[in-house]
Design goal:
The complex is a heterodimer of chains A (86) and B (571). With 86 residues, chain A is an alpha+beta fold. Chain A has one domain (2-83): HPr-like (Histidine-containing Protein, Chain: A), CATH 3.30.1340.10. Chain A contains 3 helices and 4 strands; from the N terminus they run βαββαβα. Chain A has helices spanning 16-26, 47-52, 70-83, and strands spanning 2-7, 32-37, 40-42, 60-66. Chain A has a 4-stranded antiparallel beta sheet. In chain A, a hairpin with a 2-residue loop joins β2 (32-37) and β3. Chain B has 571 residues and is of the alpha/beta class. Chain B has 3 domains: 2-20 and 154-250, Phosphohistidine domain (Glucose Oxidase, domain 1, 3-Layer(bba) Sandwich), CATH 3.50.30.10; 36-141, Orthogonal Bundle (Enzyme I, Chain A, domain 2); 257-567, Phosphoenolpyruvate-binding domains (TIM Barrel), CATH 3.20.20.60. Chain B has 21 helices and 16 strands. Chain B has an 8-stranded mixed beta sheet. In chain B, α7 (188-195) links the parallel β5 and β6. The longest helix of chain B is centred in the first third of the chain and has 29 residues, at 36-64. Classes of the chains: A alpha+beta (86), B alpha/beta (571). Chain A binds chain B through residues 15-17, 20, 23-24, 43, 45-49, 51-52, 54, and chain B through 71, 74-75, 78-79, 82-85, 110, 113-114, 117, 119, 121-122, 125.
């Protein structure tokens, strides 16, 4: 198991388009993935999960992965989230 | 099998039938019949198909540079292929619900969740997701989901009642015909079909027996359809279509000729259009301008009203294309059977007598102001005329003119250039106005008679109601007298009068209209050549006599009889 924290900095948060892109990216990894926002645990491979998790700007989340490509997955998603601009 | 209906847009074709069904209302409590695993297989298959469709769309939008549509379809695809969504559907099926009920429930659940987030963008996507849900359900039930924007082969659409919005979005190259079990001659889907040049027959009961995917023959000249054809019948039908096309090409020379009567009187032949899509045909048919630009179609099938600049660019492109010929832009004629989602109009008991067209515009003035601004802005790029629909009282006309004046003043104040000589006219389609034509013509530069509405209002016949469609007849002497009076009022005031209803392209009506003094006919571009041909066979002096007699008749039937008799030797 591998995990990392990341803060959402883009003004709209993980909504709509950024969320779609995140899901697209998460689907590429084989590992079991989790995004943890306080008490809410979302599966980043599900658009509905991501949208419902309330991942607005300024929130710090934990990205967690378990599986063969766990490190790549966590780093990849964290970098993607940190690089969001719109 | 042979069926008969009302021909509403000429033409003949042999093509594959495509049954268009509205997605049925799903019963959310429908229980599972059979094995859960079979039901899930159905869902899998429907999903596979829909995802493949979406991938094709994605590719098309990528190539077509349609970012907005691309983003939507990508989002839809992500949603429909969502693991959580899928797991839920399976769970609900295992709880004992039918696959369609399960999809319905899960879509609703996710939609509620999306709406609860309170994000405007996501709220709009809810509709897109519902659309995906409907498609899935149709897939499960083995029904074609009505999406006509991309078709893989040429088809004749067959349906109970095909909504205009569906056709408006349709693939013009692939839709070869339209057959409706319900519907009447002047339903808007018919106007649309005629405008798109699609042969159409409506009110054809027998069409209920047509099978999806079978070859059928549509003869929208006589109103006949033939289906479940034998090999021989198919060959005959194809011959028939070829013959017809030969005849059509015989009319081609009229494309280069002006419209004149047998005695050499020049007639203005104008086009009814609803977007810039038919401008090629207008040019090829050698028409004298646009007599009716139905702008309401710019407002339909969308969530927000079109902006001033959006409208401006469309008007401008039409105006430029046809210059120096004129473009008559009719301000939106919504309500009635034309729904505009973006306006959130409530359903009415009597929509044709209700909150409609200019009545909406005088209540929500900003809509008309925005449209006037767009037309005026475009007016420097062509020869534009502006026309108000559905006027029934002087106050309404004054109100509409005042709005136009206000916009003109603002343009002058802000230094925006516009054609200060732009002509302003109105539709004559309510009997009150036709009766008082003399008074109304004083305040405008021209009239255009809307014979469809004028007929329905004069005869108190709802043009949508099949049960009474036999009563809808513009040869009723009362309608003819109103038209005659309207034309006369224009002649006295030396102002032009045109007519833009179905009548203007009807081979029996053209002679009478000529005889009543009409010199401007506005028709669908697809009818132009045929109308020129008919006009060329009419002798004015004879037509005047004919019209005079028709006005004295006591019924529509006797007018028709008289016409058929008299025209035997002419047309």
């Amino acid at each position: 198991m591998y995990k990392r924290e990341v803060t959402i900095t883009n003004p709209t948060g993980l909504h709509a388009r950024p969320a779609t892109l995140l899901v697209k990216m998460a689907e590429k990894y084989k590992s079991e993935l989790k995004i943890i926002n306080g008490g809410i645990i979302a599966n980043p491979k599900s658009i509905f999960n991501v949208l419902a998790a309330g991942l607005g700007p300024g929130i710090t989340i934990t990205v967690e992965a378990e599986g063969e490509d766990e490190k790549d997955a966590v780093d990849g998603l964290c970098e993607f989230i940190a690089s969001l601009e719109e | 099998m042979i069926g008969k209906g009302l021909p509403v847009s000429r033409g003949k074709t042999v093509s594959k039938a495509m049954i268009v069904k509205k997605p049925p209302q799903t019963d959310r409590n429908k229980r599972l019949e059979g094995e859960a695993s079979d039901a899930i297989k159905k869902v899998d298959l429907a999903m596979e198909n829909i995802i493949q469709e979406m991938q094709e769309k994605e590719l098309r939008y990528q190539n077509g540079d349609e970012t907005m549509k691309l983003e939507i379809v990508q989002m839809q695809k992500t949603m429909v292929s969502d693991q959580v969504f899928y797991d839920k559907i399976c769970r609900v099926i295992h709880q004992g619900y039918s696959p369609e009920a399960a999809v319905y429930r899960c879509v609703e659940e996710q939609c509620e969740m999306l709406l609860a987030i309170g994000d405007e963008y996501l709220a709009e996507r809810v509709e897109d997701f519902r659309d995906v849900g409907d498609r899935l359900i149709c897939g499960i039930l083995g029904i074609h989901y009505p999406d006509l924007s991309k078709l893989s082969e040429e088809v004749i659409l067959v349906g109970e009642n095909i909504p205009p919005s569906l056709l408006a979005d349709g693939d013009r190259d692939k839709i070869k015909g339209l057959v409706m079990i319900q519907g009447s001659k002047t339903a808007h889907v018919c106007i649309l079909a005629a405008n798109m040049g699609i042969p159409a027959v409506v009110g054809c009961q027998e069409a209920a027996g047509v099978k999806d995917g079978e070859m059928m023959f549509l003869d929208a000249a006589s109103g006949e359809i033939v289906f479940q054809m034998s090999e021989e019948m198919l060959i005959d039908a194809q011959e028939n279509v070829k013959e017809y096309q030969k005849k059509l090409s015989a009319l081609k020379p009229y494309g280069n000729k002006k419209a004149v009567t047998k005695d050499g009187t020049r007639i203005m032949l104008l086009a009814n259009i609803m977007d810039a899509g038919v401008m090629d045909q207008v040019a090829e048919s050698g028409m004298d301008g646009i007599g009716l630009f139905r702008t309401e179609f710019l407002y339909m099938n969308r969530k927000k009203l079109p902006t001033e600049m959006e409208q401006y660019s469309i008007y401008k492109s039409v105006g430029k294309r046809i210059y120096p010929s004129p473009v008559t832009v009719r301000t939106i004629d919504i309500g009635g059977d034309k729904e505009v989602e973006a306006l959130h109009l409530s359903k009415e008991e009597n929509p044709f007598l209700g909150y409609r067209a200019i009545r909406i515009c005088l209540d929500q003035k900003e809509i008309l102001e925005e449209q006037c601004r767009a037309i005026l802005r475009a007016s420097v790029h062509g020869k534009f005329q502006i026309m108000f629909p559905m006027i029934s009282s002087m106050e309404e006309l004054d109100g509409a003119l005042a709005i136009l004046e206000k916009v003109k003043k603002e343009f002058t104040r802000d230094g925006i250039s516009y054609d200060t000589g732009i002509l302003t006219g109105m539709m004559v389609e309510v009997p009150s106005v036709a009766i008082m034509a003399r008074e109304f013509i004083k305040k405008v530069d021209f009239f255009s008679i809307g014979s469809n509405d004028l007929t329905q209002y004069t005869l108190a016949v709802d043009r949508q109601n099949e049960k009474i469609s036999h009563l809808y007849d513009y040869f009723h002497p009362s309608v003819l007298r109103l038209i005659a009076g309207t034309i006369r009022a224009c002649q006295e005031a030396q102002k032009p009068c045109s007519l833009c209803g179905e009548m203007a392209a009807d081979d029996l009506a053209i002679p009478i209209l000529l005889g009543l003094g009409l010199r401007k006919f506005s028709v669908n571009p697809s009818s132009a050549l045929m109308v020129k041909h008919l006009l060329s066979m009419c002798d004015l002096a004879q037509m005047e006599k004919l019209a005079e007699n028709a006005l004295k008749a006591d019924s529509a039937a006797s007018v028709r009889r008289m016409l058929k008799e008299a025209l035997k030797e002419h047309v």
